[in-house]
TrEMBL record:
It comes from Gaetbulibacter aestuarii. Keywords: Hydrolase. NCBIfam families: aa-his-dipept. Signal peptide: none annotated. PANTHER family: CYTOSOL NON-SPECIFIC DIPEPTIDASE. This is Aminoacyl-histidine dipeptidase. It comes from the Bacteria. Pfam families: M20_dimer, Peptidase_M20. Residues 208-294 form the Peptidase M20 dimerisation domain. The lineage of its organism: Bacteria, Pseudomonadati, Bacteroidota, Flavobacteriia, Flavobacteriales.
Amino acid sequence: MNSEIRELEPKAVWNKFADLNAVPRPSKKEERVIAFMKDFGKSLGLETLEDAVGNVIIKKPATKGMEDRQTVVMQSHLDMVHQKNNDTNFDFDNQGIDMYVDGDWVRANGTTLGADNGLGVATIMAILESKEIAHPAIEALFTIDEETGMTGAMGLKPGVLSGAILLNLDTEEDDEIGVGCAGGIDVTATRDYEEEDTPESKIGYTITVKGLQGGHSGMQIHEGLGNANKIMNRIMFDGFEHFGLRISEINGGGLRNAIPRESTAIVAIDASKEENFVTHIAEISKAIKKEYKTMEPHLDILIAKVQTPKKIMDLGVQEGLTRAIYAAVNGVYRMSADIPDLVETSNNIAKVSVKDGKIHIGCLTRSSVESSKWDLAHALRATFELTGCDVDFSGDYPGWTPNMDSPILKVMETLYEKLNHEKPHVAACHAGLECGILGKNYPEMDMISFGPNIKGAHSPDERAQISSVQKFWTFVLEILKQIPKK
């Protein structure tokens, strides 16, 4: 229950998080949370403005004795990824997130939690509201639409901010100080196709792939998690080879930044081969589950007999589609040659939709190297164009190049070691952070990213560690005290 959340320490953060999570805030539908943030800033008597694209900026003067310090921009994004389990009845557009405490973790009931990036937002809100915390002048920047295009960061104009240092509170490991991130581009393949009448000799089945963990398509892309679209396509391909399986509909995955957890398909098979089909699917399912038993212990592949669909996909198009999805890169494409253990370039086949004569395939390609990002994007384009698809590139955003000589990095490294008696992990990440985009219009701004432990972001298994939020809060307060002088 959310009342239980409000009793957690630090109460200033968790109460603001509970307030925020009561406000629906899907990407591209942030009107209510924008109004919420503006009302919050104005209620404190602070200068509050909304820019042309919907970002909210709240400015707070320095506390006494801190007026000679550099102005700090504290930044987090307002929107959250909306994912839920299939058996969860939840309306993200109208309901607040239902949270509960599970040991040292806060979770949501069957949905994403919104800790990404709600805990960052709540932390900034707590500082803006406080009358006791020492800090330099603060420009709180709350961006919109980070999760589905970063249009808020892209739309922020030069001159709106005056801060010399930017603290981005959107990293998900509390021992990490982020100094770089990947850029990304959406790759979308579409085509129309002719539907055929289903032959009378065929019968209908549904195939369901479910029980996968899902997760962040950047930070977790190297973990070997199952992709429901890839697994479903494997079954489609095999079913055609052995049983004349024909596709009527496919609905797999959803958001580009989430590794797809579930896929369903309606297919038709030769009635004369039904018994062998059922046996064979059981065998291939067993083999696939064995492959994934370590990373995906709850993977399930189910079939059920249904009314025979009236229409099926044109055979030639079906053959091309299943071959293209089989061939398309999913997962890690290249590891960084310069930074140990960093994924340089990857792709997530996030969405596959086949219905009513239309194919839609949505991918998110990421890379910390621009040339490698475009190399993979064009490889995907070539793969899908070979099967007659039109391929569109959109939502292109740059990466963030590490600056190992950053002054605020030196301050934070020293403070972290002093507080925690160990060195922090200074690293670039494979997620898309807004720092690279913000840096285009504010190239002189010294930027860093950090945050508390958040696991399973972009999935209903998202959870935030309570003890880590306490650690993070202490770190933030000490950083604000040590901001360099102007």
